TrEMBL record, chain A:
GO terms for cellular component: plasma membrane. The lineage of its organism: Bacteria, Bacillati, Actinomycetota, Actinomycetes, Micrococcales. This is ABC transporter permease. The keyword tRNA-binding does not apply. GO terms for biological process: glycine betaine transport; transmembrane transport. Residues 224-264 are annotated as: Disordered. It comes from Pedococcus bigeumensis. CDD domains: TM_PBP2.
Automatic annotation (TrEMBL), chain B:
GO terms for cellular component: plasma membrane. It comes from Pedococcus bigeumensis. Keywords: Membrane, Transmembrane, Transmembrane helix, Transport. Belongs to the binding-protein-dependent transport system permease family. Residues 15-204 form the ABC transmembrane type-1 domain. InterPro entries: ABC_transp_perm/SBD, MetI-like, MetI-like_sf. It is a multi-pass membrane protein. Pfam families: BPD_transp_1. The chain crosses the membrane at residues 20-40, 52-77, 83-104, 149-167, 179-200. This is ABC transporter permease. GO terms for biological process: glycine betaine transport; transmembrane transport. PROSITE patterns: ABC_TM1 (PS50928).
């Protein structure tokens, strides 16, 4: 099996052309990028607004939990079945899948933005208000920078979800790396399937690591303790738990708070 | 609705299979994550590599893992063991950090009190640290449970028997009923898992009720 995989991956014929690895990877990144972009435009302002005003908290907390329960493959099939007859040309394959990717990316993004702003130290917020900042200034200069670790963890979680689901979208006729899995399965070509699977896994890993690096340099050193040679206040446990790529649960943060509350 | 009642047997048998594929790894995953999380907490230098390293496993898209694993394990792609192993990997990936953070959230003065009362390290872990970490671990278990139920349905593409097969049934025949029944059944199963974990957590944390919710 391993040798078949190596043969497939080292065969240059599999890498070039419109159905080669390079073109499929670009397609995969293109679907993921455009979906994440649209999802961010919708989810981040909403999450920030809810965190800032405190209105609609119930909505975000439950949406993030409920969205995880919806099987993405089922959603994909429903969308394709429903929208395919209504569209023409190539967009008939692509649009339903992109909608599903956007829908799936919204809850983690919104939960991250909301939890980040909501979790900002109230003392910092009060100090900003006391200095005469307006609501918008407090949000832009205090809340968003402080919320960045959680916004990033929401973004990374959404990115993984989107890359994984973009693979599934190949069953609906789109391109991307999922094609190798689906096409390979049809002709019982295990080396092709395994190569496709490996490529998707590597792509997801590389993208996540890149985002981790970006996050490291985008987040203020005051929050991460980077450069000062000591971990940020709070012992690193809660900070580092905010750096994860795993699904963000607003409840985890709050349940930790109840355990910690007797310290403060 | 009539479609649902006509196919009740199918829904139940696939539902049971789905519960088995998603549920068993939850238990195995927790049993694997407990010692790993404890190690990450006990030895500080292990915390970052363990939580980040196991967290990375969650990055692997499920369909990819379902396809790659049989090659490593030397089993057929349709073998349920394949799915069980994959789901265990995801559960461990989610829970190692949760367990480590849950154990880390046990206040120092409580541990010191336990030590002063003569608890050995092992006894302290099982009698003090683990019970106090239950609320945090349970929150992680709930995430893992719901995500497992959803991920198992991806096995549909490979033809693995579980509730997701209703998706492809409906899709291939351009027929919404099985699709919606499959999705609804997945969500009901996820809620069921969630409810079981909430009940178990209540049973294991009697002090939370006694003190009005404050640990």
């Amino acid at each position: 099996m391993i040798s078949g995989l190596i043969d497939w991956l080292t065969d240059s014929a599999n890498w070039s052309g419109s159905d080669g690895v390079v073109a499929r990877t670009v397609e995969h990144l293109w679907y993921s990028g455009i979906s994440l972009f649209v999802a961010c435009l919708i989810a981040i302002p909403l999450g920030l607004a809810i965190g800032h005003t405190g209105r609609g908290r119930f909505f975000v907390v439950n949406l993030a939990g409920a969205a995880r329960a919806i099987p993405s493959l089922g959603l994909l099939y429903v969308m394709v079945l429903w929208l395919f007859p209504k569209l023409v040309g190539d967009s008939a394959f692509l649009v339903p899948s992109l909608i599903v990717l956007i829908v799936l990316a919204i809850p983690p993004l919104m939960a991250g933005a909301y939890a980040g702003v909501e979790g900002v130290d109230p003392a910092a917020r009060d100090a900003a208000k006391g200095m005469g900042m307006t609501g918008g200034q407090v949000l832009a200069k205090v809340e968003v920078p402080n919320a960045l670790p959680l916004i990033f963890s929401g973004f990374r979680s959404a990115t993984l979800q989107v890359i994984a689901t973009a693979t599934l979208a190949a069953v609906a006729g789109t391109g991307g790396l999922g094609r190798f899995l689906i096409d390979g399965q049809k002709v019982r070509d295990y080396p092709q399937m395994a190569s496709g699977a490996l490529l998707v896994a590597v792509l997801a890993l590389v993208v996540d690591l890149l985002l981790a690096v970006v996050q490291r340099y985008a987040v203020s050193p005051g929050l991460t303790g980077r450069g000062s040679g000591r971990p940020a206040e709070g012992g690193g446990v809660r900070r580092s738990s905010r750096r994860s790529n795993t699904p963000l649960d607003v409840e985890i943060v709050s349940s930790q708070r109840t355990v910690d509350s007797q310290h403060t | 609705m009539t479609w649902f009642f006509d196919h009740l047997d199918d829904v139940l048998s696939r539902g049971l299979q789905h519960a088995y594929l998603a549920g068993v790894p939850l238990v195995i995953g927790l049993l694997i994550a407990l010692p790993l999380g404890w190690l990450a907490r006990r030895y500080k230098f292990l915390y970052a590599p363990f939580t980040a390293g196991f967290g990375l496993l969650y990055t692997i898209p499920s369909l990819a893992l379902f396809v790659i694993l049989p090659g490593f394990l030397g089993i057929p792609i349709l073998d349920p063991v394949n799915v069980l192993v994959a789901m265990t990997i995801y559960t461990v990936a989610l829970l190692v950090r949760t367990v480590a953070d849950g154990l880390g959230a046990v206040p120092d003065h409580v541990q010191q009190a336990a030590t002063a009362m003569g608890y050995t390290r092992v006894k302290r872990f099982f009698a003090i640290e683990l019970p106090l970490a239950v609320p945090v671990i349970s929150a992680g278990m709930r995430v893992a449970a719901v995500s497992n139920v959803s991920i198992v349905s991806v096995g549909t593409i490979l033809g693995i028997n579980q509730l997701g097969l209703f998706f492809s049934d409906g899709f291939n025949r351009d027929f919404y009923d099985p699709l919606f029944v499959g999705i609804a059944a997945c969500i009901v199963l996820a809620l069921l898992f969630d409810a079981v974990i909430i009940v178990l957590t209540r049973l294991f944390t009697p002090w939370l009720r006694a003190t009005g919710g404050r640990a």
